[in-house]
Amino acid sequence: MIETTLFNLLKKEIPSEFEIEDFARFFQYKKLEKDEYFIRQGELCRSVAFIEKGIVLYYKIADIGQVICDFAKEGEWITQYESFVNQDLSPISIKTIEPTEILVISFDKLQQLYEEVPTVMLLARKIIEKAFFSSLSRNDELQNLRANERYIKFAQDNPELVQRIPQYYIASYLGVAPQSLSRIRKKFIY
Amino acid sequence: MIETTLFNLLKKEIPSEFEIEDFARFFQYKKLEKDEYFIRQGELCRSVAFIEKGIVLYYKIADIGQVICDFAKEGEWITQYESFVNQDLSPISIKTIEPTEILVISFDKLQQLYEEVPTVMLLARKIIEKAFFSSLSRNDELQNLRANERYIKFAQDNPELVQRIPQYYIASYLGVAPQSLSRIRKKFIY
DNA sequence: AGATTTCATTCACATTTGTGAAGAAATGAT
DNA sequence: ATCATTTCTTCACAAATGTGAATGAAATCT
């Protein structure tokens, strides 16, 4: 379990005497089936994870039913920053939609890692900033693009996800009815 | 210019020997007319400001024309975090839509302030986190609410702004045509 | 393989939203 | 006060999107 994308990435990004084995002490490797949960709506979020392989779905149950908030795939972090930071109850659930392998680090271990390798904190900030900027550009798209334009952009930016994620999830993520997305797609496939 | 909302707030929030006068050294007070710019699309953003009084508009010129990205009013910070952090060209313009008074601090002075009063950095992080979380909930609203629901929520959350901001700006912010917003409003005013 | 469930498509129709034009109302300038 | 400009409203019509039901395809289970 030592030769992971994450540890190689950390070793490369973070200038320190730390070796891959040292990083590995802080993380717990987990193999999840399809439809297993990383966190459930209403629970406390006490850890962060890196996805080695697979896809997770962020969603919540609202009055209109299930709403897809986000996706994350291999090479990305699973963060529920809002509840992680405030140690508040999570407003959303995160679950796998494929067999998925993750490396988990608890809040406490993360603090230790920060202390042992302060540069990690810089990396963490960059990850959070990236999430922030993505959120801003998602606002822009939801505000200014039509459903069909949103789909085209999503498909261009995430060609793999279009293959791996059920369409009604993508529809929900784009804020559109599944039937409408089907109608939209018909115009681009000939 | 010493008795400002900002300096009282800093004095209250930040435990230190710093007095109001000490904070004042770092900020430059500016009085802006209506329609003056804090930053223009395509320029470098080298400062942050606190609004003592007035309202600013975040907007950009896109292919569909002018698009309103955000508002900020007295008691809030003017930040263009994306370009501020990366020292990149600003993708948006920020201008006043009322006579407005602000307290400006440059990037360099902010670093100095961080060094002299480290707790300021915590405050800064909280401000950025707040912007992040607002962005997430704006995503949620744009994704899941209809135009009329978005307007109702906006009006509930910002009753003052509804009075002070032209409606076609609000329409653009909500991602709706001004005529549609007018139609929506008709149903709630009797 | 067969049965069951889940997912995607299609259709008809309702509702929402966009668009361009016209005029009313409000605001600002002289 | 008068005029000019900006903002808001209204209308008729077009386009986009939602909804519920029906069908078929694909995936999953046993």
TrEMBL record, chains A, B:
Domain spans labelled Cyclic nucleotide-binding: 30-116
Highest taxon of source: Bacteria
One Pfam family per UniProt: cNMP_binding
UniProt-listed Gene3D superfamilies: Jelly Rolls
Annotated protein name in UniProt: Crp/Fnr family transcriptional regulator
Organism encoding this protein: Sphingobacterium haloxyli
